[in-house]
Amino acid sequence: MRLDGRTAMVTGASRGIGAAIALRLASDGANVAINYIDEPERDNAAEADQVAEAAREFDVQAVCAEADVTDREAIADVVSYISERLAPIDILVNSAGITRDRTMRKLAPEDWDRVLAVNLTGGFNCARAVVEGMTDRDWGRIISISSVVALMGNFGQANYAASKAGLLGMTKSLAREVARKGVTVNAVAPGFIDTEMTRAIPEDVMAQIVESIPMQATGDPEDVAGAVAFLASDDARYITGHVLSVNGGLYM
Ligand code: NAP
């Protein structure tokens, strides 16, 4: 149990990569808080409950923690709630993310704003809310889910690529600030992973993408979760400010 006794919060963990990360951390012994956003059009609370239920199968504690990562007050509240219900947060995984793809010429300013707000400012809000507790306790892990497109850009994804590249800048800067206090700050940059996000890509476009991946396949959420679990573990104690690619060779 590499994470026995640790407490983790994973944002956007009601499904997809976030859910896989929460379950992997639980299987490694961490108590987990499943953050999700309450959206009336889909029953996210029920999805988050299912993830928490599955996490408890690993004999750890699991709670659901509803908050929009763009809402600073709500994030501060869930951080206090997790601290009371479980323990102070040792491991933060910023996985909440959205896409609103359009070429720059057609990109609505509100779609730029919202993607930056969720993917980048949301990561800042969560890191800001937990980092002081981590430095006080001389141990912590902050891991943000960036993307291969932060490194290579992508047609129609200026907003998304900028937000994910921003996370890398934040990661490296914060890593320097807290390195002396036992807190590591890293990012994982997935390539194309089979989730609802990539299922929204048209089939013919996806076929072309897969063709360009040296491993000739998309990855699974569990591939990303494994990288996060490693960075969260004591095995990675001397790794900070790193960007770990999980992309089947798409970008080297
Ligand atoms: P997904 O299936 O669309 O899941 C995204 C999760 O984030 C959902 O649970 C979503 O909740 C949640 N979320 C969205 N806005 C939120 C907010 N304001 N506050 C809290 N939670 C919010 O996506 P995914 O593929 O698992 O992606 C997870 C992360 O990996 C994202 O940051 C994504 O950018 C990144 N990533 C994914 C891929 C890929 O190929 N899939 C590649 C590189 C990076 P709802 O259910 O309400 O939407």
What percent of residues adopt helix (DSSP H or I)?
40-55%
How do the strands of the widest beta sheet line up side by side? 3-2-1-4-5-6-7
Largest sheet: 7 strands, parallel
Q: What is the residue-mean pLDDT, rounded to a whole number? A: 97
What binds here, in terms of ligands, is: NADP nicotinamide-adenine-dinucleotide phosphate
What structural category do the secondary elements indicate? alpha/beta
Order of helices and strands: EHEHEHEHEHHEHHHE
CATH architecture verdict: 3-Layer(aba) Sandwich
Strand content: 5-15%
CATH class: Alpha Beta
- Count of all domains: 1
Concise account of the structure shown:
The protein is an alpha/beta fold.
Key features of this structure:
binds NADP nicotinamide-adenine-dinucleotide phosphate; 252 residues; Rossmann fold; 7-stranded parallel β-sheet; 9 helices; alpha/beta
What does this structure look like?
The protein is α/β, with parallel strands linked by helices. The protein has one domain (7-193, 222-243): Rossmann fold. Helices cover 48% and strands 15% of the residues. It is built from nine helices and seven strands; from the N terminus they run βαβαβαβαβααβαααβ. The protein has helices spanning 16-27, 44-56, 72-85, 109-137, 148-152, 158-178, 196-199, 203-212, 221-232; strands at residues 7-10, 31-36, 62-66, 91-94, 140-145, 183-190, 243-246. The chain has a seven-stranded parallel β-sheet, sandwiched between helices. Strand 4, helix 4 and strand 5 form a beta-alpha-beta unit. Helix 1 packs across helix 9 (221-232), helix 3 (72-85) packs parallel to helix 4 and helix 4 packs parallel to helix 6. The protein is globular. The relative contact order is 0.15. The site of NADP nicotinamide-adenine-dinucleotide phosphate has 31 residues, from helix 1, strand 2, helix 4 and helix 7.
